[in-house]
UniProtKB/TrEMBL annotation:
InterPro entries: Acylphosphatase-like_dom_sf, BLUF_domain. It comes from Thalassotalea algicola. Residues 1-92 form the BLUF domain. This is BLUF domain-containing protein. One of its GO terms (molecular function) is FAD binding. It comes from the Bacteria.
Length: 147
């Protein structure tokens, strides 16, 4: 599997129902091409993680990049082969309730803010972002709280 995570700024308002609809449509499209991941919306920013075959993830990012509803401001690629982290999530909309349930809301919120502001050097914030993905993946696989 190859993976990436990107941060984007919306170019329009998104209601809760519009976000849910967006994630549902993405889940249907992703299932058809074998891509999994999650979508988070916070601080008026999207954070999306995608994983799958390299060509599928690359093609999907090209489609996402052309979507006029947002502008990608940062993208991190993980070119290291790894096992699928979110096998049951074609595109999970990760909301506050899910994060609170698994005791990771403040950690991921801080990471999103760091990615937005890039207040750490590149290597530091990239490590923090991938650490957050790993923690969320552990929650998804084991369905338990991280302490």
């Amino acid at each position: 599997m190859k993976s990436l995570i990107y941060l984007s700024q919306p170019n329009q308002e998104f209601s809760r129902s519009a976000l849910t609809k967006l994630a549902t449509e993405a889940a249907e499209n992703n299932k058809a091409i074998g891509v999994t991941g999650f979508l988070r919306f916070q601080h008026n920013m999207f954070l999306q993680y995608l994983e799958g075959k390299s060509a599928d993830v690359g093609n999907l990012l090209a489609v996402i990049s052309r979507d006029k509803r947002h502008t990608i401001v940062n993208c991190l690629y993980n070119d290291v082969e790894h096992a699928r982290r979110f096998s049951n999530w074609n595109m999970k909309f990760v909301d506050e309730g899910y994060l609170q349930q698994h005791s990771v809301e403040s950690f991921l919120s801080n990471q999103l803010q760091l990615m937005k502001e890039q207040t750490l050097c590149d290597n530091q914030w990239q490590q923090l972002i991938w650490q957050g993905v790993d923690i969320l993946s552990e929650c998804a696989v084991n369905n338990h709280k991280i302490t």
